[in-house]
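seq:
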Amino acid sequence: MSKYFPAPETADEHGIVAIGGQLTVDWLLDAYSHGIFPWPLWEDESFPLTWFSLEPRAIIEFDDLHISKRLARTIRSQKYQVTCDLEFASVIKHCAEPRHEEDGVWITSNMIDAYIDLHHAGHAHSIEVWQDHELVGGIYGVAIGGLFAGESMFHRQRDASKVALVALIKHLQHCGFALFDIQQLTPHTESMGAKEISRAEYLSRLQPAIGLSASFGTELQGSQQSIIDSK
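struct:
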């Protein structure tokens, strides 16, 4: 039973479970451990925080990852270099920047501070993509046991965020993770193999996943080439 939240099944038709609360490590870990995540509806941080458990929920099954021929060529070219947890704060700040195709910014300054605290606590991690020593892409998320909840990604060069996603999935597989949550399906993630499942199925898989002893570690495991060769 959650310390701070009602059951995720009590979410309204929009997926909202609760309004208010605190962006602290303790609250965040309790939320993710019960299928709940924060998602501010307003950029103005004086408004109450909203917490969600969506129906349906989007995930990526490791074995369903789709790599296009073009992306495979990009990875094989080694034009990008990939690291792990080297620049977490930079990745989340880049993800928070406004994007021309979207309205508003949901990664507020309070969210940035909270996830940096979660990173220092060992539960938030990033994958960075570099080109000529410049950060051009990345992804960050939350790890609890064998759960990894992907939060957001960005790119400054073509396919850089997709390269980050491929590297992350290979890393999670190598480290023994069992569930990769991406919350909402987008055309971008659907093209790479993401799918939707019911909230009930997600919750049934969540507890066994977080009970695993998987560790994200401090170094990137596996290689992008090996995940291509395994397809």
